[in-house]
Amino acid sequence: MAMTNEKLTLSDTANASEQPSKYMSALISSVNDGAKAVQSSNFALCSVGLYLAAASISINDEDIFRGSSFQISQLGGVSIPIIASFILGPIVFLLLHIQLLLRYRILAESVCALSTELHTLQKDARTRCLRLVASVDFVRMILRWKFKEDISSSYDRTTVFLTTTLLPLAVLLVVQISFVRYQNIGITYLQTAVLLFELGAIGIFHYWLEGKKDASGARTREGKLRHGLLVGAFPAAVAIFSLIYVQVPAVDDGRIRFYDLPKSEQERSWPRRFFDQPLDMVLCPEFGWGCRHLRLNNRKLVGTQTRDDALWKVLTESRAGALAAIDGLSLRERTLRYANFNGSRALKVDLVGDDLRHASFWNAAFQGASLSFTKLQGADLERAQLQEADLTSALLTGANLRDAQLQGADLELADLRGADLTGAQLVGANLNKAQLQGASLERANLRYANLQQAEFNHTAINVETRFDFADMRNVNFHPKEADAETTDAVLAVGLSNDMKDAFTERMRTAKSVIVDETVEQKVYLTLTKTDSIFSKVNNGKVIEENEKYLELLEGQPVTDPVVASGLVRRAIAFSSINDKNNVEMKVEVDKQRCETKMEKIFRDLICHLHEQLKGDGSNKRDANKSDVNKSDYVSVELMRQLDALSWQCRGEGQKEACEPAIGQPTAAVGAGVPLSQRN
Do 169 and 49 share a structural domain? Predict the structure, then answer.
């Protein structure tokens, strides 16, 4: 491809019997200048293409997950976001290649014009003139077509094919494969459109170039056949590969994570796996590249401002307010289907509205995470640490939550139909109006949980399920006459066969009843609004009045801070006293007297909780005593609310500034003493 430095000039042929005419000399100069321009554009295209391909391959999953930036030294160290590079890079490369093809066309026109003039010369004169032409592969290839002489070789044709066809298609395909794991349908479609536009430009160029093979400009049958094989077969294969395989994985695609497949699927022959899905079945497991999902297992996924000691404090020492020192990532409304977070630590991560269907969080630490309105259907959250996580209105249909740690989590309005919560720790969790139809709560711990208006139709509960001091007002255990609606809604999310079988079995065998042994202590019920299923609960274990429930809560020792979180939520919920509550609780006392008595009970409970949770876990106590405070995973917001409600305990004369209005407990949030001034 390099231009030779050993070529004759016009003066070198001065003694020749027949010198080139001025027009001939001008044509030769035009060809040489065009060859130089093609060489420059070709070098620029190769440099950009190789850099773009190398950068796409070298970018790891964590950089894509965080949306990091990288510097381009060729542009003076300018930082470009990864996402922008995957959008702009293919477009810039396409424009550079189109420019190169246009330069090739101009050069081809000049070479054809020169060949027409050379045909009028004698063979010796023509040979001398050809020695003045730049020795460039593209020029030699065209001259070979025109004179049928041994001017070019297969090397020339190969290099032209590489720069005009193979290199651009390979670069754009590599970029698309590297970025498909980001799972942005819009950007993936844009990259596919760029690739198809590139195929069109290549096809048009080669179609035009084939017409230049004969001196007459006519395209022979042989030329048409060669054109079809060269320009049609290979680009068509690339287009089919891109459109079929290099796309964002569907929700019900069960071939994404290779090592999650059955052993029989993993042991299939290489050709069969390649034909089935080359990216997920061959490139990803064999070479660690080409995966269509993010692999973020065993990572520390926190912000750059998080200190290692703060992270260690949350995970080991478990101090109150430790989550406040964590700089959580904010990654809202992303598509992260089938992502692998196994064993990772992503404290306080904000994934609100994300599509996390069939993602894997086995043994992951996501304390304090914001996961409201997320799509987690079929996700694997077994043994996940989700204390104080916000899962409000999350879609967890068919999810695996076995032995998950959900103490103090907010699952209000969450869809848990068909979910496996066997052995899950839901102490102090908020499951208000949650849908648990067909779910498994065997061995689950729901102490102090808020289960008001929850749907327990066909929910599997055994004698080890604990409901101590749970708020179970208006919970619905009555099974529907037809289960088809619930079953279809769960199975429609594309569960694996094992999960489908497990859910169907739970729907078939679940008794949906509470026997005496399951309610080990007291539960708070409204008998007038519950199903007859509660008639099986011993009356001695049923609490019907606010006062008794609050008094019993106050008497409980707070040894587990997440239990205290649940108690605070229960206490705040009961602080609102109005006529409606009085009617529901059937309190047969004067309203003013009720408010006075309830205010005292509420104040005593808040003081009790504040006494055991005040400070950041470093309160001055004897380290040898067994009741040393440990307030792990108690959120800062909850502590602020508790501070605001506990003005009576501090005795600092802040009643006017901090006292919450009865009936409006949430108004007190943030009104208390700053965290730095706590006792």
Answer: yes
Between the alpha carbon of residue 291 and those of residues 20, 258, 551, the distances in Å are 61, 10, 56
Closest CA to 185 of 251, 255, 91: 251
Does residue 87 share a domain with residue 136? yes
Q: What is the mean pLDDT of residues 112-131?
A: 80
Query: Is 334 contained in some domain?
Result: no
The pLDDT tens digits for 290-312 are 999 999 999 988 877 766 666 66
Q: Mutual orientation of helices 591-613 and 636-645 as an angle, nearest 10°?
A: 130
Contact predicate 362/343, CB 8 Å:
yes
Assign 3-state DSSP to the chain and report helix, strand, coil percentages, each to 5.
50, 5, 45
| pLDDT higher than threshold 80 for residue 395 | yes
Q: Say if residue 146 is in the same domain as residue 269.
A: no
Give percent of the chain with pLDDT exceeding 90.
25
Please give the tally of structural domains in the chain.
Answer: 3
| pLDDT tens, position by position, 567-604 | 776 666 666 543 344 444 444 444 444 445 666 777 77
Residue 286 CB contacts under 8 Å (≥ 6 apart), including other chains? none
Asked if 126 and 271 sit in the same domain, the reply is no
- Do 202 and 261 belong together in one domain? no
Which structural domain range is residue 274 located in?
250-292
**Higher per-residue confidence, 597 vs 256:** 256
